[in-house]
Write a structure and sequence with these properties.
Number of strands: 12
CATH superfamily of the largest domain: 4-hydroxy-3-methylbut-2-enyl diphosphate reductase, catalytic domain
Strand order of the largest sheet: 10-9-11-1-12
CATH class of the largest domain: Alpha Beta
Structural class: alpha/beta
Number of helices: 11
Largest sheet: 5 strands, parallel
Radius of gyration: 22 Å
CATH topology of the largest domain: Cobalt-precorrin-4 Transmethylase, domain 1
CATH architecture of the largest domain: 3-Layer(aba) Sandwich
Strand content: 15-25%
Helix content: 25-40%
Number of domains: 3
Shape: flat
Distance between the termini: 74 Å
């Protein structure tokens, strides 16, 4: 017998969800998904896609159901079927192979990644060695380094590497960055490079994309007042992982990455009253709604949306798909 004491159960426990905004799909991801869908409509099934179009299994599986076939390399693409390059970009060797085989291809590379490609090509033309700040093995980094001959781009992942990297000519250097990095971490790496190489040239504006910056700013705005922050995204999504790190560094030590609601460990919320929720740039809003519905099934939920900026960027589809 409780003798009049109120027993707080999971079903009547109040939970405030702070929704970070902007969150989820960016213009580059929207464009890439549309390219695959439009290609299927124009060319019929199947349309082949080199690598995951974006880093999200939910998106990939939806496109597979519509007729997309995802492959690791071009040797899995038949000569008579079109192929789409992922949003992360591809090395020039891949483009050259499509030309050699006369494959129909559509380039879904994010225009902001393509901008970085043009920047480093310009530096190469000016006989500068390029230092790329990024994560080894990430498809965007592989694609960016593959724009130039081997050795023309040196990869630096952190401050420690920035202070030890060996360069052929300190007076002829430039740097570029992977677009999905943490702005704060990149600032430190750039500062370390500038201390060592005062003559190093950089982009007119930071290469980190507007969507990455906006999502990090939004999660910073909620993190300090949250007991837990959940980022919806894939573990191989660089911008999603950076959001978890940003939330942790901004005041919420209990920050977690989940791919969707089914991955939640509800014990995280045992003592929580305020849950922050955001989504990486390749995670659809449908997965945010799914998580909120799962919370409503367990708690008395109040939603507060915290918006830090508006986004209106739209990228055009390739001419082959709009002609």
């Amino acid at each position: 017998m409780l003798h009049g004491r109120f027993l707080m159960t999971e079903s009547n426990k109040p939970l405030t969800i702070l929704l970070a905004s902007p969150r989820g799909f960016c213009a580059g991801v929207d464009r890439a998904i549309q390219i695959v869908e439009c290609a299927i409509e124009r060319y019929g099934r199947p349309v082949f896609v080199r690598h995951e179009i974006v880093h999200n299994r939910f998106v990939v599986e939806n496109l597979e159901a519509k007729g997309a076939v995802f492959v690791d390399e071009l040797d899995k693409v038949p000569d008579d079927r079109p192929v789409v390059f992922s949003a992360h970009g591809v090395p020039k060797t891949v483009s050259a192979e499509t030309a050699r085989r006369n494959l129909v291809y559509l380039d879904a590379t994010c225009p902001l990644v393509s901008k970085v490609h043009r920047e480093i090509e310009h530096h190469f033309d000016q006989r500068r060695t390029v230092i790329l700040i990024g994560h080894a093995g990430h498809p965007e980094v592989v694609g960016t380094m593959g724009q130039l001959p081997v050795g023309a781009v040196l990869l630096v992942e952190d401050v420690n590497q920035a202070v030890t990297v060996a360069v052929p000519d300190p007076l002829n250097l430039a740097y570029a960055t992977q677009t999905t990095l943490s702005f704060d971490d990149t600032v430190e790496v750039v500062a370390a490079l500038r201390r060592r190489f005062p003559a190093i040239r950089g982009p007119k504006r930071e290469d980190i994309c507007y969507a990455t910056t906006n999502r990090q700013a939004a999660v910073k705005a909620i993190a300090e007042t949250c007991d837990v922050v959940v980022v919806i995204g894939a573990p191989n999504s660089s911008n999603s992982v950076r959001l978890v790190e940003t939330a942790a560094h901004s005041g919420c030590a209990r920050s977690r990455l989940v791919q969707r609601a089914a991955d939640m460990d509800w014990r995280w919320l045992d003592s929580a009253h305020r849950l922050g929720v955001t989504a990486g740039a390749s995670a659809p809003e449908q997965l945010v709604h799914e998580l909120i519905a799962a919370c409503r099934a367990r708690y008395r939920v109040t939603i507060e949306e915290v918006r830090t900026t508006e986004e209106s960027t739209v990228f055009k589809l390739p001419r082959q798909l709009v002609a």
